[in-house]
């Protein structure tokens, strides 16, 4: 389906996901870059060496999940906005999903938004926990959403319910 509509298949997604054991240890980045293109800023931005070295710049990024601490430094460097951080340990009922965001206006902390999946379908409410927007991020803000745990692997964007 990816070449036809841009939506990855369940097999595509399964190939880039960390194990349940790794998810239980805290925040971790997930690269949902599903096409071979000449791109490697994520590799150069990771100070922990969690994004494995490319032997060919056209390769898709691979994360060593054991080295990744979910800091998100790779997220704002990805021109395709294809890297997300999930934290299944956020609370008993919610997970944290960090999403790269390049729209204005930025959402507000504590604002309720609608989480959407990779196809743009509405999943339910999410709460904005934090908005990071520093000069170093070069206009790619990172929006931290608290979502129900069962939606953490599906929530990949959001809709602002109101315009300020």
TrEMBL record:
<dbReference type="Pfam" id="PF00037">
    <property type="entry name" value="Fer4"/>
</dbReference>
<dbReference type="GO" id="GO:0051536">
    <property type="term" value="F:iron-sulfur cluster binding"/>
</dbReference>
<dbReference type="GO" id="GO:0046872">
    <property type="term" value="F:metal ion binding"/>
</dbReference>
<keyword id="KW-0479">Metal-binding</keyword>
<protein>
    <submittedName>
        <fullName>4Fe-4S binding protein</fullName>
    </submittedName>
</protein>
<feature type="domain" description="4Fe-4S ferredoxin-type">
    <location>
        <begin position="59"/>
        <end position="88"/>
    </location>
</feature>
<keyword id="KW-0411">Iron-sulfur</keyword>
<dbReference type="InterPro" id="IPR017896">
    <property type="entry name" value="4Fe4S_Fe-S-bd"/>
</dbReference>
<dbReference type="InterPro" id="IPR017900">
    <property type="entry name" value="4Fe4S_Fe_S_CS"/>
</dbReference>
<keyword id="KW-0408">Iron</keyword>
């Amino acid at each position: 389906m990816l070449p036809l509509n841009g939506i990855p298949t369940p097999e595509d997604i399964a190939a880039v996901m960390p194990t349940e054991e790794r998810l239980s240890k805290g925040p971790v980045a997930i690269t949902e870059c599903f096409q071979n293109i000449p791109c490697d800023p994520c590799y150069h931005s990771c100070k922990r060496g969690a994004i494995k070295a490319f032997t060919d710049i056209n390769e898709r990024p691979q994360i060593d999940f054991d080295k990744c601490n979910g800091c998100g430094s790779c997220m704002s460097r990805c021109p395709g906005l294809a890297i997300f951080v999930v934290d299944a340990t956020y609370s008993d009922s919610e997970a944290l999903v960090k999403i790269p965001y390049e729209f204005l206006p930025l959402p507000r902390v504590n604002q309720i938004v609608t989480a959407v999946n990779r196809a743009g379908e509405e999943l339910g409410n999410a709460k904005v926990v934090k908005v990071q927007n520093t000069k170093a991020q070069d206009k790619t803000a990172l929006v931290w959403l608290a979502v129900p745990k069962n939606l953490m692997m599906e929530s990949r964007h959001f809709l602002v319910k109101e315009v300020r």
